[in-house]
Write a structure and sequence with these properties.
Elements: H1 2-6, H2 12-16, H3 24-39, H4 44-48, E1 50-61, E2 64-74, E3 77-82, H5 93-103, E4 107-112, E5 117-121, H6 123-142, H7 151-156
Parallel strand pairs: 3-4
Antiparallel strand pairs: 1-2, 2-3, 4-5
């Protein structure tokens, strides 16, 4: 779906050239997700406000450099495409915060392509994430991996079911 959007591919055979490892069903699914971005009213303002696709970014925090690619950058926003089958913006909050910081854009959005749904992280929400992001990175730098279970953090952790420290 990302490749179809980045290259403005709307044809199955054209996308298949970039997805040799995928089944025809998976290629069609990716094309369908991309098409939702092109057509869904919830995404109209972002389609029209697109300035840069797949913009490389770097963000240095406490001596660690994080690199990534922002799917779509606009005048005052970053947007990331997700083809997830479920909607969990909290799973991606630090990714969107980092993109916002790296591009100096005050708003960050997730376009959930399967659901025609846009999730917005406002400037205020992104600002609140800054302290948590800083604490996480500082812990990494110090080698501090002490578990800090909570309903919120365990709720987004993919290892909660097998972790001895998970929130009950």
């Amino acid at each position: 779906a990302h490749k179809a959007l980045e290259l403005q591919i709307r044809d199955f055979d054209a996308l298949k050239k970039y997805a040799s490892g995928l089944t025809d069903e998976q290629v069609q699914d990716a094309l369908d997700c991309a098409e939702r971005f092109h057509l869904a009213p919830n995404f109209a303002a972002y389609r029209e406000g697109a300035l840069q696709w797949e913009q490389p970014v770097s963000l240095s925090l406490s001596g660690i450099t994080f690199n990534g690619f922002v799917d779509l950058v606009g005048e005052d926003f970053v947007l990331d495409f997700k083809s997830d089958r479920t909607i969990h913006p909290e799973h991606h909050q630090f990714q969107l915060w980092a993109y916002s910081q790296a591009t100096a854009k005050p708003n960050a959005h997730i376009a959930y392509l399967r659901h025609d749904r846009l999730h917005t992280f406002t400037a205020a929400q992104l600002s609140e994430l800054a302290a948590s992001a800083s604490a996480l990175v500082n812990g990494l730098v110090k080698g501090d991996f002490t578990p800090t279970p909570s309903e919120t953090s365990c709720g987004i952790c993919p290892y909660a079911e097998v972790c001895d420290h998970h929130w009950h």
